[in-house]
Amino acid sequence: MFEYLVDVVWDDGHEPLVVRQARNQRQIDISSVDLATGELRTIHTITDDIWVEIFPGTPARAAIASSPSKIEASTAPCASTVRPSPRPICRYGASYRRAKATR
Amino acid sequence: MPQTATNDFPRQYAATRRFTTGTPRDIKIALDGAFVTFLRSAGPDSATLTLWGFDTAAGTEHRIVDLAELGADDSELPAAERARRERARESAGGIVAYALDASRSIACFALGGELYVADLAAPTTRHIATPGGVFDPKFSPDGDRIAFVSGRALYLVATDGTTPAVMLCSDDDPLVSWGRAEFVAAEEMQRSDGYWWAPDSGSLIVARTDDSAVARWWISDPAHPNTPPNEIRYPAAGTTNAKVTLHHIKTAPGV
């Protein structure tokens, strides 16, 4: 199903993340890799009826939040998708659908 | 009456590559914010980039790499680098890309297929011996080693140049390459990376691309009908893609 390797993100203190896209471009899976076994554990899936857009630079891990209110203020446009580390942040979902609806 | 002006808008627009030559690009900021590195050409009529540094406290800038001093010739580029520039719509010459180590005190870059390391503060630049055809060099996070692609293989070399470059991954099959982004990734996914260092510098994840099932296209150059067409593997829409697999490669200590 996943023919496309979109990106790899390897942050200090975490297993590497592998981002794969389906050939029909309607699904992207973000998975962490167990390097000992090579097994993937999918931690987030993005789907769309038409296509899922790729945003270079994402997914990116957020820094550990010392003050949640501070994070919310500084990332206001996508506050609803912000999760504390180690969950990756992905901006594609909500913001992309909004953009499409205006067309 | 014919147009005789030699500096009219279309000429300026073309000569300055859409008014982009002479502007800073690829800006990277030191961790403490005291230093900024960037690429820039000598001015609006030059598209040959070199590496510059900017001291934020003093407000002064200085050239880190003097291309003339290096005597490098970037007219002959590795095929992978020519393809990357086409994918990235890169029209400049000189140093068009560079990587910093995690401490952001040294930079590495390929120039005409040769590998160089620049100390940002000194500033000094030295050549590192490689098999040539260097493409996409990147430091290990600790800065001790540089990985780079040459031909279809991924290599490692010590940053201080004390040990010769060693081949880390390769394949005999001429349609298999290691450490490079395949055509679709570079053209449609904005991914130029084909390998990723582990944060502890002890291993890498490397992409292996097998193009054997990808259809062949023969591209001819109408301006040079006397040369044979160029054969490339081109995954046209709806046809078979390259087979891309990821491999975790540990590096031996000291290599």
Describe how the helices and strands are arranged:
The complex is a heterodimer of chains A (103) and B (255).
Chain A: E1 2-9, E2 17-22, E3 27-34, E4 39-47, E5 60-61, H1 68-74, E6 88-89, H2 92-101
Antiparallel strand pairs in A: 1-2, 2-3, 3-4, 5-6
Chain B: H1 9-15, E1 25-29, E2 35-41, E3 48-55, E4 60-63, H2 67-70, H3 79-87, E5 93-94, E6 99-100, E7 106-111, E8 114-119, E9 124-128, E10 134-139, E11 145-150, E12 153-158, E13 166-169, E14 176-178, H4 183-188, E15 195-197, E16 203-210, E17 216-219, E18 230-233, E19 243-250
Describe this entry's structure for a reader.
- The complex is a heterodimer of chains A (103) and B (255).
- Chain A has two helices and six strands, in the order βββββαβα.
- Chain A has helices at 68-74, 92-101; strands spanning 2-9, 17-22, 27-34, 39-47, 60-61, 88-89.
- Chain A has a four-stranded antiparallel β-sheet with strand order 1-2-3-4, with no helix packed on it. In chain A, strands 5-6 form a two-stranded antiparallel ribbon.
- The longest helix of chain A has 10 residues, at 92-101.
- The radius of gyration of chain A is 15 Å and the shape is globular.
- Chain B has 255 residues and is mainly beta.
- In chain B, a hairpin with a 4-residue loop joins strand 3 and strand 4 (60-63).
- The mean pLDDT of chain B is 89.
- At the A-B interface, strand 1 of A face strand 16 and strand 19 of B.
